[in-house]
Design goal:
Blueprint lengths: L1 E10 L2 E11 L4 E5 L6 H8 L7 E6 L14 E4 L11 H12 L4 H9 L4 H4 L8 H13 L5 E4 L8 H16 L3 E6 L2 H7 L2 E6 L2 E7 H6 L3 E5 L2 H10 L4 E3 L5 E3 L3 H11 L3 E6 L3 H14 L12
Parallel strand pairs: 3-7, 3-8, 5-6, 6-7
Antiparallel strand pairs: 1-2, 1-4, 8-9, 10-12, 10-13, 11-12
Helix pairs in contact: 2-3, 3-5, 9-10
Bound molecules: adenosine-5'-triphosphate.
């Protein structure tokens, strides 16, 4: 189990991580979601002892990472898949890690198998690997010591949709055997596919956390009409809170049937009316992303 308590980190006047607390439980895949620069990597670097915390604590099974003897046998870490030695082959990198952490060499083939890298691919130099292959190699490296906890920074970067599904299966099986996984992503859709629990971070602060079902459930509605101005007026008059959506229409804090009645009474024809599954999370994430980017946000599966 990973426990982060009241973690903060400043760089000069800039607060990169601001009073962050969460736990990652065994048997669960926890997604750490936030736009670029939100503070995900900094938090993960603090958990893995690479960056000192300003205030607060981060422990793995009750112990700070730096105090764990032979940590790779307890915690598998992948923070930067591109940081692997480009001149070595994948197999060489794994053999070296196995030697360093005292894992049997037979574990190299097992790890390659787990990430579906073939013997031929493992024999190639890493400089010739695609980003997706580097991610697989990095995960194999993290799994070598048979750890109970995995910490992966943007592991789905460079994976195609089939690769993302493959990763979900791998991490699901790992969690089902009792492992705890913390993985970060700046893509809502990606994390929706892979994670059981979600922690959403923006500007260094946690803005939402809970199970995926809790966060995606939402009781609201998404509505689009032929006359949004009139519909907005009718919702306002009925005292129902709503927010304009980036892509037109509204996210409404009421059930679709109530919204339907308001629209009917106002004589507004609806183009779309559905339950707000994840709508609030999606909106919140869009806003966070927009605040941290100068250009229009574009990320797959959300922007239409
Ligand atoms: N060593 C450092 N010195 C100064 N600022 C830093 C340092 N490391 C990180 N930051 C800043 O802290 C903020 C959080 O960065 P971090 O890398 O944790 O974000 P992130 O959520 O992982 O983003 P990304 O998805 O882009 O990797 C950023 O604004 C970054 O510029």
């Amino acid at each position: 189990m990973i426990e982060v308590k009241n973690l903060s980190k400043r760089y000069g006047d800039f607060v990169a991580v601001d009073d962050v607390s969460f736990t990652c439980k065994p048997g669960r895949v926890t997604g750490f979601l936030g736009p670029n620069g939100a503070g995900k990597s900094t938090t993960m670097r603090i958990i893995t002892g690479l960056t000192p915390a300003g205030t607060g604590t981060a422990t793995i099974n009750g112990v700070a990472y730096r105090d764990i003897p032979n940590p790779a046998t307890r915690v598998g870490v992948l923070l930067d898949a591109s940081a692997q030695h480009a001149g070595r082959t994948g197999a060489e990198i794994l053999r070296l890690t196995a030697m360093t952490i005292g894992a049997p060499q037979s574990r190299v083939d097992e790890a390659l198998d787990m990430v579906s890298l073939t013997a031929e691919e493992a024999g190639r130099r890493v400089r010739n690997y695609s980003l997706g292959m580097r991610q697989r190699l990095g995960i194999a490296n993290a799994l070598l010591g048979d750890p109970q906890v995995l910490i992966l920074d943007e592991p789905a970067n460079g994976l195609d949709p089939a690769g993302i599904h493959w990763m979900r299966t791998l991490l699901r099986q790992y969690a089902d055997r009792g492992g705890a996984v913390l993985l970060s992503s700046h893509l809502l859709h990606e994390i929706e596919i892979i994670a059981d629990d979600l922690i959403v971070i923006g500007h260094g602060r946690i803005v939402a956390q809970g199970t995926k079902e809790e966060l995606l459930a939402g009781t609201g509605a998404v509505v689009r009409s032929a006359d949004d101005q009139r519909l907005g007026q009718a919702l306002y008059t009925a005292g129902i809170p709503f927010h304009e959506r980036q892509d037109g229409g509204f996210t409404v804090e009421q059930t679709p049937d109530v919204v339907g009645v308001v629209a009917r009474d106002a004589g507004v024809a609806l183009v779309e009316l559905r339950g707000g599954d994840g709508a609030r999370l999606e909106e919140m994430f869009l806003q966070l992303t927009q605040q941290t980017q100068r250009e229009q946000p574009t990320f797959q599966g959300v922007q239409r």
